[in-house]
Specification:
This protein is about 10% helix and about 50% strand. The longest helix is centred in the middle third of the chain and has 7 residues. The N terminus is likely disordered.
């Protein structure tokens, strides 16, 4: 494996999207394919993801807006060797990165059997920032921790 690419903690909130930003296609975006190698109780998951030219394996544990996360970058050959094991536990989405002050709102527009589903995620450096975040009016309901919008459930 080529190396560690993320810290060991993920702090994020997830929202439904009331209205997509104008000229969405003009923002940086990439198609993401992801599949799950393992899903266990307690919010434990091992995920493969192809995001543009980047391939990664991620271990996550926990439920809610603060979770343990460990991610390593894979070579395309390593990714291709593992990908068949995710059959029947996959999803595809296009992720748009929308700047919002000193943050980025990641809007995921799902394809396949979830075509039409749109959610947004915002990552934070600390729990206080996550708690105090005031979403713009184009975001709606906070669905952080709602299992109906978890990628692992959507991939099943």
């Amino acid at each position: 494996m080529s190396g560690v690419t993320k810290s060991n903690r993920e702090i994020e909130r997830k929202f439904l999207v009331r209205k997509l930003p104008e000229e969405l296609a003009g923002f940086p975006h990439a198609e993401i394919s992801q599949g799950y190698l393992a899903i266990a109780p307690g919010g434990v998951q091992v995920r493969l993801r192809k995001n543009g030219a980047t391939h990664s394996l991620t271990y996550k544990r926990g439920i809610g807006n603060v979770r343990e996360e460990r991610e390593v970058e894979l070579t395309p050959a390593q990714f291709d060797a593992l990908w068949p094991a995710t059959e029947s536990k996959r999803l595809v989405k296009t992720r748009y990165d929308i700047p919002l002050g000193n943050r980025v709102v990641e809007i995921d527009v799902y394809g396949g059997r979830h075509n039409g589903l749109v959610v947004a995620e915002v990552e934070f450096d600390d729990e206080e920032s996550a708690k105090n975040f005031q979403p713009p009016d184009w975001l709606s309901e906070d669905v952080t921790g709602d299992p109906r919008y978890s990628n692992q459930l959507l991939a099943s």
